[in-house]
């Protein structure tokens, strides 16, 4: 036990931020902050970190794929982390991440007032704020930020680590406020389990994650929805749809709908086309030579 505590890299957390956003979310933000601080990838005046869900799972082995996806989705929704795409290849859907330091600094300023109102966790409040139509994300003026940013505007929150703790950090229980934060957000994993496909095992979870990276979360979700409509509530059917779309280079739901519309139009034309005349129905003035290929010996 002592070797585990000494040899393993400790996971940092901030009790203050964990109280405001949740323990799981704080752990993820702290780790992202550490990687971002040491990152050499700078785009639009900001440092970024890129990773897939499989790679996140290697760094957080005590969380399942579903838990990691839920944490990232929740932090994206309330804009505590900002995502982007700076991949060289267009088909590469790997996401890039950075911490929204400005929003964290704002939360620190509002913390005393929030405590006076008896509200500790602020994610529900942030979720309601980002749902307002007139609010634009912090990245709206990102193109104008060409100066070197302050990577840690709130060191009292992001640098107050507790590496000496010996408690095992394996929070898997969903808190009530966490359920509120993710309610209403559809993703392939929750849709799969809630619409009769069955329980997600490790293999299927890995396959879903892989397709989300190869195509996108939206296309995987759309494939599942179409599988439900066609009565094929199993992963093999969903994966067959995804392979079909990938072979045709579909990258968005609009591409899928356009392809399906074109297929229906071709099918309609074929059905409406008059059948070709055969045998005695061939007109006498036809350009077709019905004796083509026959020799005189055959007559």
TrEMBL record:
Record's superkingdom?
Bacteria
> For the region Disordered, what residue ranges are annotated?
122-182, 274-299
Outline the extent of the DnaB/C C-terminal domain: 189-258
Record field: compositional bias (Basic and acidic residues): 128-150, 170-182
- As given in the record, the signal peptide range reads none
Fetch the PANTHER family from UniProt: DNA REPLICATION PROTEIN DNAD, PHAGE REPLICATION PROTEIN-RELATED
Q: Which NCBIfam families match?
A: DnaD_dom
In which family does this protein belong, per the annotation? Answer: Belongs to the DnaB/DnaD family.
Q: What is this protein called?
A: DnaD domain protein
């Amino acid at each position: 036990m002592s070797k585990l505590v000494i040899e393993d890299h400790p996971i940092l957390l901030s009790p203050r931020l964990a109280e405001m956003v949740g323990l799981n979310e704080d752990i993820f933000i702290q780790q992202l902050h550490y990687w971002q601080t040491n990152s050499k990838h700078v785009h639009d005046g900001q440092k970024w970190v890129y990773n897939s869900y499989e790679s996140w799972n290697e760094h957080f082995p005590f969380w399942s794929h579903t838990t990691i996806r839920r944490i990232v989705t929740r932090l994206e929704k309330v804009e505590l982390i900002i995502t982007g795409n700076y991949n060289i290849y267009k088909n590469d859907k790997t996401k890039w991440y950075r911490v929204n330091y400005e929003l964290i600094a704002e939360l620190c300023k509002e913390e005393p007032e929030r405590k006076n109102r008896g509200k500790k966790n602020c994610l529900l409040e942030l979720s309601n704020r980002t749902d307002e139509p007139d609010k634009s994300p912090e990245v709206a003026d990102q193109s104008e930020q060409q100066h070197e940013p302050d990577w840690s505007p709130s060191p009292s929150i992001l640098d107050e680590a507790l590496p000496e703790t010996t408690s095992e950090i394996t929070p898997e229980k969903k808190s009530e406020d966490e359920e509120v934060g993710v309610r209403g957000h559809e993703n392939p994993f929750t849709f799969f389990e809630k619409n009769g496909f069955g329980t997600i095992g490790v293999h299927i979870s890995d396959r879903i994650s892989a397709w989300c990276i190869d195509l996108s979360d939206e296309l995987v979700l759309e494939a599942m929805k179409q599988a439900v409509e066609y009565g094929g509530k199993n992963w093999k059917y969903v994966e067959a749809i995804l392979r079909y779309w990938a072979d045709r280079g579909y990258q968005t739901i609009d591409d899928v709908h356009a392809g399906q519309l074109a297929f229906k139009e071709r099918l309609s034309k074929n059905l409406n086309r008059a059948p070709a005349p055969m045998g005695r129905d061939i007109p006498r003035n036809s350009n077709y030579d019905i004796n083509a290929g026959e020799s005189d010996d055959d007559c």
